[in-house]
Amino acid sequence: MDFTPIINQVVSMLWWLVPLAILGALIKSPWFKGVVGEFIVNVSAKLFLDKQKYHLIKNVTLPTDGGSTQIDHIIVSKYGVFVVETKNIKGWISVGVKVLFA
Length: 102
What we know:
By secondary structure, this protein is an alpha+beta fold. It has helices at 4-13, 17-28, 30-48; strands at residues 54-64, 67-77, 80-84.
């Protein structure tokens, strides 16, 4: 018995599963979550911060002894300079403080 017509019919009905699986894997990836998290912070800063009082600088790369480091957002105002590192993950984040100038 030839199963080719049945196989072709099943494949033609389920062709959309491959792109759906790729899209699902992309949405679950840490890279995509990071992009979405930074987008949310950018939009929130533009919508809720007064442009006359706050200046938003995005994606700043600074040289370090071991290479470079990247800062997601720097918000400058007359009230201070705020450095924002965006994380779009669940759980606890521990932060260590390093004094640069004594």
